Amino acid sequence: MDTLIKNGLVVTATDTYTADVAISGGKISQVGADIAAPAGVRVIDARGKYVMPGAIDVHVHLQLPFCGTVSADDFENGTKAGACGGVTTVIDYAIQQKGHSLWEAIEARRREADPKVCVDYGLHAGITDWGIAGKEMDDVVKYGIPTFKMFMVYKAQGWMAEDSDLIQALEGTARNGGMLTVHAENDSAINLLIDRNRGRAKELGAYGHALCRPNYTEYEAIRRAILWAEVTGGRLYIVHMSTGEGADAVKDGRDRGVDVHAETCPQYLLLDDERFKGPDGHLYGTCPQLRKPADQARLWRALADGTVQVLATDTCTFNTTQKAMWGGDFTKIPFGMPGVETMLPLAHTCGVGAARFSLNRLVQVCCTNPAKLFGLYPNKGTLAVGADADVVVFDPDRKVTLSHKNLQTNCDWSPFEGFELKGYPAVTLSRGRVVAENGKFVGEVGHGRFVQGHAWGKLD
Ligand code: URP
Ligand code: ZN
Ligand code: ZN
């Protein structure tokens, strides 16, 4: 035994009980009452605290070249930020370049990430050229990347997938046991609205971004993607779902037996489009955009009742200097915001603390469901003998006023500035190593490893 976490309240997706957790060689070796600590073992006193699986953020973009700049949290700082916030695994994207192989993107991303990551990470393969990717998909699943990403927007960036690509990729998942994740927005409807409003950019300011991305531009795309999953029998996952109508569409699809899953993010639960009207409105520019309080209420319900299975962040950090590139033109805002560090404490305060869902549901949506859906379970996402010792000792009583000044992120603003939190990670362990204490990183650069995800058992 290397480490013993004593007297905490162990919280899993299904159970809550007082126990000790012993760790040996980076794995959980024992969970039970009154485990004795041999001499020399590090003992972490968790009395009065929760002992939970480390959170898994399945949607981050670290050092992503995007919107004419590169997202400001790189693999090193982004994973440090994750550790500080109780996230012990992140999944980023290896996005194919048109005319090139998926393997080039994967190898390039691994070269960037492997020496820098401070907690474990996986990759999704971003498909932008189906003609090439379609031939490679099955082998990518076998390599340990069972999840793919297609964009129904971003034609101008060269990333957009046609419906025929989506259909074939979903057919691929039905064959190889993978899962297609999609960014669901209708590109041509958005561009029509942008063209109509371009002349009013000065008058509209950052609110122009909201005006050109009404709810229907998202939920039309969600409904379309669900239809393609239904007719192909493929497995679909909607990323960063922002609208109440989107949640209704996912519920309808699931009720019909379609293999569709969905994620939402703290920004869609906690912020609304009034933010675009403030002096710093452009900072909140993200795709999809922030919505209305009614959408937030619907998404909270969806997260609680199982319509939405996963909370993730879509971390794509742009600082105020990068955001200033918009120059008063809403079409030029770098899209994205920080989030990996604040997901778990926000979900605790605003989800569990506000009686929107239980502690076990918090573990389901932040830890266990992501592990199951992205092929990492049971090695990650739960506290069980034999699992990786990715553990968060969470202090439910610690009060924190969120400020970017106290966060690890390379961002000089926070979308959640001033939020009053009750509950914060006290200690984060990644494969048995303490990597953060009370919001400060104490781990080692390069400690993280690439983790292979497994498919749904359909490949040999
Ligand atoms: O605006 C966003 N969400 N930026 C990151 C890229 C994406 O679409 O997920
Ligand atoms: Zn997206
Ligand atoms: Zn994203």
Provide a concise account of the structure shown.
The chain has 460 residues and is α/β, with parallel strands linked by helices. The chain has 14 helices and 19 strands.
Describe the structure.
By secondary structure, this protein is an alpha/beta fold. Helix content is 32%, strand content 23%. It is built from 14 helices and 19 strands. It has helices spanning 75-84, 102-113, 130-143, 163-176, 187-197, 201-204, 207-211, 215-232, 244-255, 266-270, 293-305, 320-323, 343-352, 359-373, and strands spanning 3-11, 16-24, 27-32, 42-45, 50-53, 55-57, 65-66, 69-70, 87-95, 120-126, 147-151, 179-183, 236-238, 260-264, 310-311, 391-401, 420-430, 433-437, 440-441. The strands form three sheets. Strands 1, 2, 3, 4, 5, 16, 17, 18 and 19 form a nine-stranded mixed beta sheet that branches. The chain has an eight-stranded parallel beta sheet with strand order 6-9-10-11-12-13-14-15. Helix 2 (102-113) links the parallel strand 9 (87-95) and strand 10 (120-126). The longest helix has 18 residues, at 215-232. The protein is globular, with a radius of gyration of 21 Å. The mean pLDDT is 97. The structure holds N-(aminocarbonyl)-beta-alanine and zinc ion (ZN) (2 copies). N-(aminocarbonyl)-beta-alanine (URP) binds at residues 61, 183, 286-287, 314, 316, 335-336.
